[in-house]
Amino acid sequence: MGTVLQPHDHEHHLDLDAALDFLNTLDLDDGLLVEHFNSPAEAGAWLVDHGLVHPDAKAAWDVSDLVRVREVRAAIRDVVDSVVEQRPPKPRSVDLVNRTLESRRPARIECDGTAVRIAHRHATTPVQDALAVIAEAIVDELAAGRPDRFRICANDRCRWTFYDSSPTGRRRWCDMSTCGNQAKAARHRAKAKAEGVSPN
To answer: How far is Cα 106 from Cα 99, in angstroms, rounded to an integer?
Structure first.
């Protein structure tokens, strides 16, 4: 019987939407900046919930891990914003994203004599590994996908990042039911005021 190639059953992965949700853990709520990672435990819980670290790993996290998560999040956000705004990202952001990507070891082949599998890749620490997976999801889209579909919500009191998967590629709001409707209501009020009509 020939050697069989098997995927490793232990590989961490994150899709693009979830990676962008990570960036939105620092967001605006009605114009006020809200931090969702106020402790190592909160950051660790998000990564566990998204399958990026094992539940038992986050117990050893400390403030330095929280600082790292926030720094990498800011760097990736700056890169995404720079693509949307068609400006160069900050050099320190590029450097940190690259170092984050490079912290994850390349794939390796394992063979037990009957099956060949791709080894589970890890960075030095669980937090570095998780951040590398997040960065990979976004950088892969920038490199080989549709980077022109990255968006920042047009609501100045929101500014969430999202990926525009609409057929026309003209989506402006992170969510039409919230920010989109708020914008429509604001336009209605402005029009009524200009016409001297009291809005309903």
So the answer is: 14
Contacts 24+ apart (CB under 8 A), 95-98: 96/71, 96/72, 97/72, 97/135, 97/139
User: Regarding predicted confidence, which is higher, 4 or 92?
Assistant: 92
Which pLDDT tens digit goes with each residue over 52-61?
Answer: 988 887 667 8
Q: Domain extents for the chain?
A: 4-164
Give the up-direction half-sphere exposure of residue 78: CA atoms within 13 A in the CB hemisphere: 16
- Sequence-distant (6+) residues with CB within 8 A of 143 are none
Task: Identify whether the C-beta of residue 52 lies closer than 8 Å to the C-beta of residue 12.
Answer: yes
Structure-block tokens of residue 28: 């605006």
- Distance between CA atoms of residues 116 and 14, nearest Å: 24
Residues 6+ apart with CB under 8 A from 170: 164
4-164 placed in CATH 3.40.920.10: no
